[in-house]
Amino acid sequence: QNIEINTNITSQCPIPFYANIANETGKQADESFTILSSTSSIKKGKFAKFTGGVTLLNQDKSIVADELSVNRSTSSVDANGDIHFQNKGIDIFAESLIINQQKKSTSLTSTSYQLNGSAGHGSAKEINIDGNSKTLSFIDSSFTTCYDPVPDWQMRASEITISSDKKSLEAYNARFSLFDVPILYIPYLTMPISDDRQSGFLYPKISTSNSSGLEVETPYYVNISENMDATITPRYMSERGTQLITEFRYLQGLQSGQVDIEYLNKDKKLTNNDDSRYLARFQHIGTFSERFRAHVDYTTISDDNYLVDLGSSQFNSNDAYLYQVGELAYFADNWQTTLKMQDFELLGNHQQSYKTLPQIEASRQQTFDDFDGLFDIYAEFSSFDTSDKTKPTAQRYHVEAGLLYPMVTPAWFLNSELKVLQTNYSQQNISNNSLLEKNISRTLPKVRLHGGVNFDRNIALFNSDYNQTLEPQLQYLYIPEKEQNNIGIYDTTNLQDDYNGLFRDRRFSGIDRIAQANQISWGVTSRLLTEENNEVLRFSLGRIVYLNDGKIDDTDQDALVDKSALAADIFVNLSRNWQFSSDIQYNTDLGVTNKSQTTLDYLFSNNQTIQLNHRYARDVSGESLEQMSLATNVKIAQRWQLVGRFTQDLQGKRSIESYAGLEYSSCCWGIRFTYHRNINSKIDDAGNIDENRDAFDSSFNIQFVYNGINSNKSSNSVGDMFNSSIFGYKRPYFLNN
Amino acid sequence: CGFQLRGNYLLAPELQTIAFSSVDQYGELTRLVKQHLTINDVNLVQKSDDKIPQMRMLQDNLDRRTLSVFPNGQVAEYELIYTVRYQILIPGQDIQNFRFELNRDYQDDPDIALAKSRELSLMLREMRKEAANKILRDMASIQL
Amino acid sequence: EKFNVEQEIKISSSRQAADLKNKIFSYIDNVIIAQGTLTIHAELVQVITEDKSDNKIYIAKGSPATFEQTLQDGSPINLQANEIRYEPSMNTVVISGNALLRQEGSEVSGSKITYNFDTEYVNAESLDNAKVETVLQPKNKTELPKKSKDKQE
C-alpha cells in the first residue's frame, strides 16, 4: 500500500480571472459587429463612430474601449483609450487597437496581457493576432508566471509567438532574469505551455555527475502537423560529448505510437572504443476495430553499459534486460486469441534467453443455460528459438480443457475444477547425450477443489464497534506423477510460494514442467472492518501440505519436504497516520525465514510521510538479500520541501542508494537541488568495453521548474523527485487487453 | 465465540441490477468482474434508464518499481503495482470514483527472461482475479 | 434621385381635429403621411405650424409609429419609435422611445435617433445608463439583394 504523494501548490496561487465580456452583455456574438455604446453615428457604407463605454462583439473576440470607429470602405476598426481585448485564449489591455477585416489581423500597442487559464502574463510594445486568432506574436515583450511586483523569474524577448494549436511558445533573443538579475541569454527557444507530458520544466536542465561531468539539456518542441509532434533535446556532457535525444510522436486515427532515438556519436570517456552509442525504442498501439488490437514495443541498444553510463528516461539504469515484443489480439464475444512474437535484449553476459517466434494463444469460456458450470478451453502453440546454437529448439502444442463448477453464496463458496492437459512437443537440435526426445506427447488430468467459509461477528475494540470476519479456505489439488525429463526447459521456472501462491494450481510458470501434486492448501484470513466497511486490520496465515511422499523441494535438493513454508501477512491501519504491513514465508522444517518484508508508514499533516521498510530474501538466484530503506517527504518551511530516500544493503554493509532532494517552490517557479548516489550495475560486458567503472555513480543536479503554466496540472514535484531515483516508478508493460 | 455464518447478501438489493459498461469491453478484468457479478446473482443489463445504478470499468495499468538489487547492482526484485479504476453511479447521487492498487513482489532473473515473462502474465491474471474479488467486496460498502 | 422636401405632402386619417388658436392640426387613427418616396404610419399625427417661418413640424405617435424612405442609392431605410418628429425644413427626422433604425448593412436601436436626409447621417444616443445597440453586417453581406420590408410592422 503506497501512499499517494501529491502536493498541490498552485491552488494557493490564484490566477487573475477576467469575466467573459460577451456573457456580461448577454448578447450573442456572430459574424457581424454588435456594438453597444452611449452614442453612435453612422454614414452608411462610409464609416461609423461610437463613444462612451463602447463594447464590440464579433465572432470569438470582444473589445471594450472609450472610443471606437469602423471604416466601412477599408473595412477596418480602430479604437483607443483604455482598451480591453478578449478572445478565448487571452486578455489584452492596450492603448490602441486596429483590426483589418480583409487581412483578418488585429494589432494592439503598448499592451499588457494575461493568458487564459494559465498564470502566463506580461507586457509587450505590440501584439499582433492573425488568422482567426490562431497565432499571437508579441513584439519586444516580457513573459512570466509570477505576480509579485519584481517577478521571481521573467523572460524578455524581441519576439514571442504563441500559437494556440501548437501548444507551445517560441521566443527569439530570450533573456532570462531571476529577481531582475539577467542570468541567461538564448537566441531561440521553445517552451511547452499546455502539454501535460512535458511537466513544465523550465529548461535548460543543468546537472553534474561523476560519470558524465557537467550536463546541460535544452529541449525543442516541434509541432510537425496536426497529429505529429516531436521533441529534440541536445544533451551536452562535458566528459562524453553531445548526445541528441529525439522523441517523435504520431496519432493517426486509431493508430498511435512513439519513436525514441538517443544517439551519441563518440563517447570521449571510453578510451578503447569509439563506435557510436545509441538507444532506439519503437512503440505502437493500434486498434483496427473494437475487436482487433495490435501492439509493438521494440528496443535496441548499442552496448550493455549504455544505461549505466548515459541513462535514459525510458528505462531504469540498473535494468537487466529490455523487452522486444509484437502482439496482435482478436476478441470475439466469448473467446479471444493473441499472436505474440517475444524476444529480449539482454544487458550483460547472461545465458541467451529463448524467444517465441510466434506464440499463439486462444481461450474460450462456454456457459450453459441449464447448468451452472463453465466449460473452459485454453490452447497454445509456441515455437521456441534461441541464438545459442548449443541449445535445443522446439515447437509445443498445448490444450487445456475442463469443466469449472463455481458455487457461491454469501456464507460459503466451493469451486471445483476438472481439467485434462494435453501437450505435444517436437524438439530439434538435441545434443547427443541429452535425455530429450524428438517427439513427445504428455496427457495429465488435474482435479482441484477450492472451498471457503465466511464467518462474521460484531466486536468492540479500542472503544469502537467493528465487524470481524473469519475466512478459512481449503484447497485440494491432484495431478498425477509424470516423467518429464525428456522435455527441455524453454519457458518454465518455479514460482514463489508466498501467501498468494498457496491456492495456485501449478508450481511452475510455463508448461514444460507440470509438477506432480497431491496436496492440500489451507489458509485463514481475518479482517476487522469499520461500519463503512473499511479494512483496518487484516491477518492471513496458510501453507501447503503435501500428501505425496518424497516431494523434492526444488530449491533445497536435500531436504525431503512434506509441507511448504508457512506464509503469513498482516496489514494494520488502525489510526489515520500509522500504517503497518508485513508478510513472511517461514520454513518450519529448517527453522529459517525464506522471505520477509515489513513496512511502517507515518503520515502527518498534509501528506508528509516517513516510511521505514525492511526486506529479506534467503535465496534470489543464489544470492541472499537484506535491505533497509528510509523514505521521507517533509515540508520544512512555507515553500521548502525536503525529499529523502536512503537504502542500505545490510548483507554487503554498504549504501545502495542515497537520494536527497530539496525544492523551493513558489507560485510561479521552483528550483530543485538533488543529490543522488546510487550503485552502478557492474556488467562485465561480453564486448570489449572493459572500462573501470566506479562502483557508485553520484550526481548533483539543479533544475528550474516553472509552475502555473498549465493551471490544470499541479506540478507533482515530490512524485517527480521520487521517480528519478533507481527505485522510481516505470511503466514498461502495456496491457493489451 | 460469537462467529456465525454470514447471512446477508454481499450486495445491497439496489445493486441487484446494474447497467455495466467498460472502456475496454473485451478486457480480461472486465470479463472477470462480469463473471463475478453474475455468480453473485447480479443482473447485468446493457443500456440504462436513470433508475438503475450504472457501473463503468476504466483503464487498468501495470507499473513496476525496483525493490532490491543484486550485489552487482542489477535489479533483483521488482514490485508490480496493478492499478484498477472504476466508477459507480447510483441514481440520484453523484458519480463515485474508485481506485485501488494491488502489489506483488516479483523476482527477476535475466538468465530465464522468457520464463519470467510467463510468470509475469500468470501474476497479472491472479491480480486481476483478486481485483475482481476486491471490487465485489468494496461494492458492499457503497453508500446508497 | 435626391429626396426633395418641397414635394407635396398628403395626409389621410379616420378623424381630424383642429386647434386654430395654436395652429395645430391633429389627425387621429391609422394616419398615413405620404410625400414622394416617404411614408409615415401612425395612430396620431399633430401638424404644428411655426408662427414666424410658417414651417410645418409633423409629430407622429404610435406603438410604434413607422417611417420609410428610399435613399439616394435606391436602398430603403426604415425607422420606428413611439414618437417620430419630421421637420422637412431642417431635413431631419428625430425618433425617440425604443427607437429603431434599419438600413442596408446596419441597424441601430437606442433612446433617441436623429436621421438627416441631406447628409444621410444617423446619430443615436441613449439616456441615463441604457446603451445604444448598433449591428454592422460584415462587408460582403451588404451586397445581398434588397430585402423587401413588410410595411405594416
Structural account:
In chain A, 2% of the residues lie in helices and 60% in strands. Chain A is built from three helices and 41 strands. In chain A, strand 37 (640-649) and strand 38 (654-665) form a beta hairpin. The longest helix of chain A has 7 residues, at 717-723. Chain A is elongated. Chain A starts with 20 loop residues before the first helix and ends in a 7-residue tail after the last strand. Chain B has 144 residues and is α/β, with parallel strands linked by helices. Chain B contains two helices and seven strands. Chain B has helices spanning 28-39, 113-139, and strands at 4-5, 17-22, 43-45, 54-57, 61-69, 75-89, 95-107. In chain B, strands 2, 3, 4, 5, 6 and 7 form a six-stranded mixed beta sheet that branches. In chain B, strand 6 (75-89) and strand 7 form a beta hairpin. In chain B, helix 1 (28-39) packs across helix 2. The radius of gyration of chain B is 19 Å and the shape is elongated. Chain C is globular and about 50 Å long. Helix content of chain C is 0%, strand content 60%. Chain C is mostly beta strands and 153 residues long. Chain C has strands at residues 10-12, 15-19, 24-35, 38-49, 56-70, 76-87, 92-103, 106-116, 121-125, 132-136. In chain C, a hairpin with a 2-residue loop joins strand 7 and strand 8 (106-116). Classes of the chains: A mainly beta (737), B alpha/beta (144), C mainly beta (153). Chains in contact: A-B, A-C. At the A-B interface, strand 21, strand 22, strand 23, strand 28 and strand 35 of A face strand 1, helix 1, strand 5, strand 6 and strand 7 of B. Strand 28 of chain A pairs antiparallel with strand 1 (4-5) of chain B, so a sheet runs across the interface.
